[in-house]
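Pilot study result, target chain (553 residues):
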Amino acid sequence: MQKPSEIQTGLGHSLDKFFPDDAAPAKRAITLSGLKGEILSFQVVYRFLGDKLGPDLILELSGPLADCTLQRQVGLAAVEHPTYYESPESRIGKAPGYYPDPLLPAEAYPVLPEQTRAVWITVSIPKNAEAGSTDLVLKPKCGDKELPNLKARITVVPATLPKQELLMTHWFHNDCLLSQYRIQAWSREHWAILKPYLENAAAHGINTILTPIFTPPLDTDIGTERPTVQLVDVIVIGKDEYKFGFGRLERWIDLTRRCGVTHFEISHLATQWGAKCAPKIVAKVGGRERRIFGWADSSTGARYRKFLLQFLPQLVQCLKRKKALDKSFLHVSDEPTKNDLPRYAQVREMLRQGAPQLPVLDALSDLDFFEAGLVDRPCSGTDHAGPFLEREVPHLWCYYCCGQTKGVSNRFIDFPSARNRILGWQLFKFGFEGFLQWGYNYWFTGKSARLVDPFCFAGGYGRCPPGDSFMVYPGEKGPIDSLRWEVFREGLQDMRALKLLADLNSHRPSRRVRELLALPEIPSMFEYPRDPDWILRSRAAVNRDIGLLGGKI
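Predicted structure:
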């Protein structure tokens, strides 16, 4: 007997995740508020009860903000292994399966038998929007069947979202673009595909970019190497003598700035996890290109020292010409441990001799590196930030990656969205200068062995928790956003709104607002509300207070 072809529709917030076997929400209306210049998101959810394919769902939008919206299908990513099993308290699911994540461009949405699917609606509030409430009406239709209307009431707060002051990077992997699109490094095709990815990164809050002066020595087994993406030309002109060309680096700075980047991370000058070896560096030797440094070369060896002391002063001059010197950081080695401190100190001293003007920023979780004066901007793991905060370390950054699975915020595909967005509130509460994450678009398997399809293997064949290594998926002509990337941006917008409210309150003090801004519900990076409704309620309260205080300072 054929089942009835009923389609159920409803609305969900951006912090909801809907799986194919979930029931559709009954909510017919939703309320949202945001500042001018802010980007809001919510979901239209539908479930088909028929046993055959139905006609595609189409959404028609009307209202003053209809022209400011973007519709995308919430696609499914294959999660072959959920996040490490030591963190069961906050995973959505324990089993492998298809999880909602990629936001696929679409104008019509498939209606599949006995499946629940969602459409992600993004509303970009114009900076010149009128303050007040307005309705966005959504009219779903399947074939010639019109379904009941849905409504989003959107309140525009009489204030503009301030510029992001937090320095933020998710590492940008040029070699993954080369491998995915089958193009040559720094070819016309490479420069062309860079633009949409850089624009997407900046639109989501990335203002600091990993800059591969040499191929970054990251995520490779000893003796192996990643595809060469070296911005600086090197020519060997004699024994331990070198000539450098900075044309590509200058072009990179110009392009990334046009796309919205303001700061530059100079790629690591020693290998990951201990600073033992020099990075891969290629040069022209007698007119032919060859590798002149790599795994066989000690990071503290005399030959590499001579190279650095010739290169670094010229790098400084290039950054001065581009007016980027005071907006650049050096990296020594990623995630060194206390046992690596002596060697790290030797490399750091070489950098201090060659480029004393450039501060060092590194991801590490041992306070001893800061106490020894080796790192100017320590970037602590979020689960190790306590001692740094207690010490009141200046210019403190934080990061998370595959190791931060217990208790703290993270953006894994199989984690609740609230655990992603809460980071913005913590960044405000604890006053971090910056945030770092290692994977904007890392689409390789473990140790960069080969390219992987993130739609089908979101965890890189077991290398890391699903979604740890990327926030965007590769599209035909540029990036495809993820649900997690939109939610992460919402957290940064929360942080910016909190900063605006704090500035307003400093001019018109209110005890109630001061108590709200103290965020007593977030005493540490481990302790924070797990309930998504807390975030939604608290952000609504922040918006109300901004409106009451006048929205301007």
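One observation from the pilot: The mean pLDDT is 95. A full batch analysis is planned for the follow-on phase.
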